[in-house]
What does this fold into?
Amino acid sequence: MLALAGCERAAQNMYDQPRGKPYKAGTLFPDGALSRTPPPGVQAYARGSEADTSSGREGTAGVDDDRRAQAATVLPDPITPAMLRHGQTLYGVYCMPCHSPAGDGDGRIVQRGFPAPPTYHSDRLRAAPDRHFYDVISNGYGVMAAYGNRIEPADRWAIVAFVRALQLSQHATPDTLPPAMRDAVRDGLARAGAGTDTKAGVDRGTGAGMTRAGTAGASAAGAGTAGTGAAGTGKSGGPNEQDSPAAGLAVPGSLP
It folds into this structure.
């Protein structure tokens, strides 16, 4: 009996042996951190929950998807309502505090003194290639931090798709809208021009279209295209409509 008790105790000690936990401090390495950064040039073989539960034997598909997204120069997948909704959610978490719901660079953080980013609705950024936005999200620029270590490659492209929907929401014409929305928007623009009504998401007397991110994303998702469901012909008209020197300027295809 004593021998059996000793074996069980030894087995329990193996289960509960001393070990380092992620992000805990330790004395094993000079920097005092137990978590280690992979050496430069290391290529992932597997990732995600499947890799965690299979000692890396599964989960290789996620790595292949990451490589395809990282190599793309334009949106690698067809834009769908689900992608736009996903991009809208991520935009609200990572981008909206500075870039604002409408993408005009007048977010809450900017209103409290942070340098303003350029508006997405400038001619320069409307003409910028898709990869331009992907690179900025990945690498950051100026006072903007890099988000490549916290947003997966495919998710960055979803944000790019939603930014395109935001841009279209401020520059779309009724002819580009789905037939079900076209007549309603034209009537709303006519009433707004006369200063008699503000329905159909049109600002009184301005002809400016739907300016909130939620409206733009929902309309674009409803159209099932790259933002063609968003309405409006005017620009955002925010105080930061012009490119901000604090955020830096660049030619399309490079970091802004």
Notes: The radius of gyration is 25 Å. Confidence is low (pLDDT under 50) at residues 197-256.
